[in-house]
Structures are given as structure tokens and as C-alpha cells.
């Protein structure tokens, strides 16, 4: 219950922050932390990273990309916003936007073996595919 309250508070607080475009002066390409990298699928169904999947909710996080079912999100920035549970504010662009004009902010919360991803329209809970 307490984790749910913390997650909800983080989502409300950090989605309200303005989205900043990545600057050409940024010296390093942003990358997802290692604990987020890997294959994820919607909770509660178990999944295997080595087997094919029909799930359109499954995605792969590697380096600066989130590879979704039909598109890729390219990381523009990532900021850790909490230590317990571990949480980040992730700003990215979608390959569905060829102009790369629209930045999307999401909150990623890693807790208890699940990854919760929230934006201003919905919240989804995922499990890591082993």
C-alpha cells in the first residue's frame, strides 16, 4: 500500500515538470541504467526473453532505446528521482514521430521485481522476462 502511494505521488509530481529538449552540447548520449535493461512484458503473465512472443505489450530496453512492439523510443534524457523505490523520469521521442518534435515524459518505478511505467494517460506494470 505504501509503495502505491509513493508511486502515485512521484507520478503526479514529476509528470508536471516541463520537458526539456536534449541539447547538442550534451556530451554523452543518455542511456537507461543497467537494472532497467532487458526484456519486459505486462504483469502478471510470465515470459521468456529467449522465446518469441505475440504480446504487443512486450518491449526491450537497451542502451538509449526502448524497442516496443511497433516502434522504438529514443531516450532524450533520464533523471533518477527516488532511491526507494528506485524511480526515474524518462523523456523520449518515438519513431512514429519522424520529425522527432514531440517529447514524451514517463515515470519508471522499479520495485519488488516489477517495473511500473506511467505517463499522463495510463500506468502499466511489467515483469522482467528471464
Automatic annotation (TrEMBL):
Domain of life: Bacteria
Entry keywords, A to Z: Signal
Signal peptide: 1-21
Keyword Signal annotated: yes
Name the UniProt record assigns to this protein: Uncharacterized protein
Organism whose genome encodes this protein: Luteimonas padinae
